[in-house]
UniProtKB/TrEMBL annotation:
<feature type="binding site">
    <location>
        <position position="219"/>
    </location>
    <ligand>
        <name>Fe cation</name>
    </ligand>
</feature>
<keyword id="KW-0560">Oxidoreductase</keyword>
<dbReference type="GO" id="GO:0010436">
    <property type="term" value="F:carotenoid dioxygenase activity"/>
</dbReference>
<dbReference type="GO" id="GO:0016121">
    <property type="term" value="P:carotene catabolic process"/>
</dbReference>
<keyword id="KW-0479">Metal-binding</keyword>
<dbReference type="GO" id="GO:0046872">
    <property type="term" value="F:metal ion binding"/>
</dbReference>
<comment type="similarity">
    <text>Belongs to the carotenoid oxygenase family.</text>
</comment>
<feature type="binding site">
    <location>
        <position position="282"/>
    </location>
    <ligand>
        <name>Fe cation</name>
    </ligand>
</feature>
<feature type="binding site">
    <location>
        <position position="461"/>
    </location>
    <ligand>
        <name>Fe cation</name>
    </ligand>
</feature>
<dbReference type="Pfam" id="PF03055">
    <property type="entry name" value="RPE65"/>
</dbReference>
<dbReference type="InterPro" id="IPR004294">
    <property type="entry name" value="Carotenoid_Oase"/>
</dbReference>
<protein>
    <submittedName>
        <fullName>Carotenoid cleavage oxygenase</fullName>
        <ecNumber>1.13.11.-</ecNumber>
    </submittedName>
</protein>
<keyword id="KW-0408">Iron</keyword>
<feature type="binding site">
    <location>
        <position position="172"/>
    </location>
    <ligand>
        <name>Fe cation</name>
    </ligand>
</feature>
Length: 482
């Protein structure tokens, strides 16, 4: 049985799209010690490192290529004393080392038949998906369950190696800003199909199996003060096909998605709530409000290209292989007294990769910041959208025609959540010119624009690492910085 949920090569947008133009990998690791300011000014209080992970194949990937196959590469801009510098480095995984020793790509891609005989396989842990800063460590995480994070130094971006302290996990682990605990999930093709984990800053590790009816591809989690929000999604490998040894992803519209509350004090899953069938990649945030739990998510109701759901719109929406991305930002209100969940639409704009100020994780949040999808089949953001999570009121800032940006991170400048800038890489499709943009969190006004002298390809998730971490983490602090 596979634990990959990308195993069907049917009906996918071909690998050329995700290996050319702005998705093409860069071939070199570079350092640009001082970036030119093109517009605006760097905020005086801005100190820290903005980093973004990405898929950047070291060698020409075997066909068929999937965007998620590439080796992890981190691009980062460090801000210190009113100046900014850039560097990019591969995450030096064991799989990448094996490829380098062979002088070619040797691993099975997601759209090929997996090689179960391969040590450490069948898929390469590329560490290409997400970045998390915890307890003095920058961790590069992989979207697929069953992989160890990789630790990197900041700001050097040198890979220290796989980081075993918490065990395997998926991308989108979180840091609880109250306790400093690392909170994570892992999933697997065999029981336990999911595992919840916490690691305290003094090294106490707790891993708890979660009872699920079968393997579930769970991409993200959310935190409240007391709970971790987990999902039992409605898109998963067809159980009947699995009995014949085949993985065929299906959406089950008659099977509600279940939202689980995992009590982190009691270390157990205490309750499931049902919401309409959907798939979810990313949460915006969650929090407790009296006897209710509020969860905000980018929800997909029609997530597979080859299995159209009733009323499929004719909007042009991004697709990655057979995955169809038509998100809506919704609010789930989980009533702890009745056990019922209510779903409400917050915003129907085509937008994903929601981010907030990391210090507000698990607390009531006014606004989330999302990338707005360009109307095309490739995954490209043509702007940034600020959405009020209460009223749904939204403002947007679009990039110039032909320019596309990545996920934003929120870089705080003071205690007020609006006293912050959003940071993201932005690149021009034809020329490959790349810039770093800073926008005000309140109005999305341009605060500063910096030239990156080399191309920064499209990528995945970002993290802003505040202030003190600009010092080398080769000598590690003993307490969490965020
Ligand atoms: Fe993600």
């Amino acid at each position: 049985m596979l634990w990959c949920f990308m195993a069907s090569a049917r009906d996918f947008i071909d690998g050329d799209t995700y290996s050319s133009q702005d998705f093409a990998p860069v071939e070199r690791e570079l350092d640009h010690p001082e970036l030119e300011l093109l517009e605006g000014e760097l905020p005086p209080g801005l100190q820290g490192v903005f980093a973004r992970n990405s898929s950047n194949p070291r060698f020409v990937a075997p066909e068929p290529y999937h965007w998620f196959d590439g080796d992890g590469m981190v691009h980062a801009v460090s801000f210190a004393d009113g100046r900014a510098s850039y560097r990019n480095r591969w995450v030096r995984t064991a799989g990448l080392a094996e490829d380098e020793a062979a002088g070619r790509a040797t691993w099975t891609g997601l759209l090929s038949r997996p090689d179960f005989t391969r040590a450490g396989g069948p898929y390469k842990n590329t560490a290409n998906t997400d970045l998390l800063y915890w307890n003095g460590r920058l961790l590069a995480l992989w979207w697929m369950g069953g992989g160890l994070p990789h630790a990197l130094t900041v700001p050097e971006l040198e890979t220290e190696g796989p980081w075993p302290d918490a065990g395997t996990m998926t991308a989108h682990a979180k840091v609880d800003p109250r306790s400093g605990d690392l909170v994570f999930l892992d999933y697997a093709p065999t029981p336990p199909f999911a595992t919840h984990g916490t690691l305290t800053t003094d090294g106490q590790l707790t891993r708890t199996p979660i009872e699920l009816p079968g393997p579930r591809p769970q991409h993200d989690l959310a935190l409240t003060e007391r709970y971790t929000i987990l999902l039992d999604v409605s898109m998963f490998a067809d159980p009947e096909a699995l009995t014949r040894g085949k993985v065929h992803m299906r959406f089950f519209p008659d099977r509600p998605t279940r939202v689980g509350l995992f009590d982190r004090k009691a270390h157990r899953l205490v309750r499931w709530f049902e919401v309409p069938a959907c798939y979810v990649y990313h949460f915006a945030n969650a929090w407790e409000q009296g006897r209710e739990v509020i969860v905000t998510v980018c929800r997909m109701r029609d997530p597979l290209m080859y299995q159209p759901q009733p009323g499929r719109t004719d909007r042009v929406v991004p697709r990655i292989s057979h995955l169809r991305l038509e998100p809506e930002l919704v609010r789930w209100t989980l009533d702890l007294d009745t056990g019922l969940a209510r779903e409400e639409l917050i915003d129907s704009a085509l937008a994903e990769f929601p981010r907030i100020d990391d210090r507000r994780l698990g607390s009531p949040t006014d606004a989330a910041f999302l990338g707005t999808f360009a109307e095309q089949e490739a995954f490209r953001f043509d702007g940034v959208r600020r959405v009020e999570l209460g009223s749904g009121a939204a403002i947007e800032r679009k990039y110039p025609a032909g320019w596309y940006g990545g996920e934003v991170s929120v870089a705080p400048l003071g205690p007020d959540p609006d006293d912050a800038v959003l940071v993201t890489f932005v690149s021009e499709l034809g020329s490959g010119r790349s810039e770093l943009w800073l926008l005000s969190a309140r109005e999305l006004d341009l605060v500063a624009k910096l030239a990156i002298p080399s191309r920064v390809p499209a990528g995945f998730h970002t993290r802003f690492i505040p202030g003190e971490a600009c010092r080398s983490t080769r000598a590690r602090p003993s307490s969490p910085l965020i």
